[in-house]
């Protein structure tokens, strides 16, 4: 996801040419692709004066990222467990709010837009990426997870195409639907782009970590209670073993299409 994170930050106006310090909150931060790209892209003298808060509702991701921050000596990166739908943060604290591949998963994306309107300063930038609906045909995680499911002794009725909007709101994986949602919440200077770019996965274990929420969604949506009870606990290991057999214990690229959206709060 690092390549998309870079493109998203560039669309938001952040990069090597940034000369002014900033305060940024990265919601649904996962293991930190946004923070990693910021450390690469922003000049050190700007980073020293800036604040980067990485937040996720998942304690495990926050713990992993906190260790990464310490190990790599990233500048001015904080980590915290927060819900992007309602963080409880004081209003008007940030110049940027980012979410990388999250708004098609988070149950109430409209609540996230309200959160952005609250925590961003006037003229602040919301920037997010989501999977495009077209990826549900045979892109992204779909081929590898579908082939893993086929190793089970029962059939998972995964449709084709797969609905990429995990929360069941297809407008959030459609460029026009995203534009309408942003406009309805009062955002201005809305830019929505569609990009096709491979996402590199370094090994099967990283795939299993990145898409753990997708695994849970598939189980909750398509498996019976009996199937969950019997196969959920070992499913991550099944995914890893299958992908080692399929790809080897090395990396491969996931092909897909992403939507990048940026918008500003009114001045």
UniProtKB/TrEMBL annotation:
Organism domain of life: Eukaryota
Keyword Transferase annotated: yes
Sequence intervals crossing the membrane: none
Gene3D superfamilies: Vaccinia Virus protein VP39
Statement: the UniProt record of this protein carries the keyword Transferase: yes
Name of this chain's protein: Methyltransferase domain-containing protein
Protein species of origin: Bionectria ochroleuca (Gliocladium roseum)
An annotated Gene Ontology molecular function: transferase activity
Keywords linked to the UniProt accession: Transferase
InterPro entries per record: Methyltransf_25 (IPR041698), SAM-dependent_MTases_sf (IPR029063)
Domain (Methyltransferase) ranges: 25-124
């Amino acid at each position: 996801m690092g390549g998309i994170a870079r493109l998203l930050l560039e669309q938001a106006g952040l990069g090597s040419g940034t000369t002014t310090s900033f305060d940024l909150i990265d919601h649904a931060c996962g293991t930190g692709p946004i923070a990693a790209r910021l450390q690469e892209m922003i000049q050190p003298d700007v980073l020293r004066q800036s604040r980067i808060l990485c937040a996720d509702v998942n304690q495990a991701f926050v713990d992993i990222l906190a260790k990464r921050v310490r190990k790599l000596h990233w500048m001015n990166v904080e980590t915290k467990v927060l819900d992007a739908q309602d963080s409880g943060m004081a209003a008007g604290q940030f110049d940027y709010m980012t979410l990388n591949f999250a708004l098609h998963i988070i149950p109430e994306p409209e609540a996230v837009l309200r959160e952005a309107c609250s925590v961003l300063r006037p003229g602040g930038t919301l920037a997010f990426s989501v999977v495009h609906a077209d990826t549900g045909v045979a892109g992204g995680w779909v081929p590898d997870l579908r082939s893993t499911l086929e190793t089970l002794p029962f059939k998972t009725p995964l449709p084709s195409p797969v609905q990429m909007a995990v929360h069941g709101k297809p407008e959030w994986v459609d460029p026009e639907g995203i534009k309408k949602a942003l406009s309805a919440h009062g955002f201005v200077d809305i830019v929505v782009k569609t990009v096709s770019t491979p996402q590199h996965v370094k090994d099967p274990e990283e795939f299993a970590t990145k898409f753990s929420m997708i695994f849970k969604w598939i189980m909750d949506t398509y498996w019976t209670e009996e199937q969950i009870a019997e196969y959920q606990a070992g499913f991550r290991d099944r995914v890893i073993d299958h992908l080692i057999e399929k790809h080897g214990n090395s990396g491969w690229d996931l092909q897909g299409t992403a939507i990048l959206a940026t918008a500003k709060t009114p001045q």
